[in-house]
Amino acid sequence: METKKHEFIYSERSSKTDKFDPRLIAHVVRLAEEGTPRKELMKAYGMSNETLGLWIAKHSSVLEKRKVYSTAEKRSVVRAVRAGMRVSEAMVAYNISSRSTIRSWINAFSKENMEISSSKPTEMPKKITPETENAAIKALKMELAEANLKIKALDTMIDIAEEHLKIDIRKKSGARQSSK
Questions:
Q1: How big is the chain by its Cα radius of gyration, in Å?
Q2: Residue 136: how many other CB atoms lie within 10 Å
Q3: Residue 75: how many other CB atoms lie within 10 Å
Q4: For the chain, domain boundaries
Q5: Distance (Å, rounded) from C-alpha 151 to C-alpha 149?
Q6: CB distance 2 to 33 below 8 Å
Q7: Rounded to 5 degrees, what are φ and ψ at 52?
Q8: Cβ-Cβ contacts under 8 Å for 135 (sequence gap 6 or more)
Q9: pLDDT at residue 57, rounded to an integer
Q10: In angstroms, how far apart are the furthest CA atoms of the chain?
Q11: Per-residue pLDDT, 3
Q12: How do residues 24-53 score in pLDDT, each as one tens digit?
């Protein structure tokens, strides 16, 4: 038995595979409900953020559960902000509690889009001569190759999404629409 913060006595785990003492769980949840910052609790009692979140979700009736947003929900918020919605409006519309959350999503998805997007397309000359025609054909071939590469990247992303989510994203040819 060891003494921790607030002279609270509980049995210490001998290894990471052992379960936490139920008295410790109740104590930590009570401290979180009283307003002790989560980082302090994790440091003082040696648990991960995920473990503390699970304890609060399971044992606390006072604290709000943290909302976990799917990638699709995050993309919707980012699209709305890019389309002209202010961050404060997006917070209200999508029930998000923090501006920094939305800003971090915007940064993450802008980096993702930079990796997928191709370089600037080359402009074609207005006057066509045999020399410029060859250059134009080369430029078109390069653009076609980049477009094909982008299509492969997007197809790969869809394949990965279908595999992880275990749903069919692509429309099957000849599929009937459901009647409502």
A1: 27
A2: 16
A3: 14
A4: 2-59, 68-117, 118-170
A5: 5
A6: no
A7: -60, -40
A8: 125
A9: 81
A10: 89
A11: 39
A12: 888 888 888 888 888 888 888 888 888 888
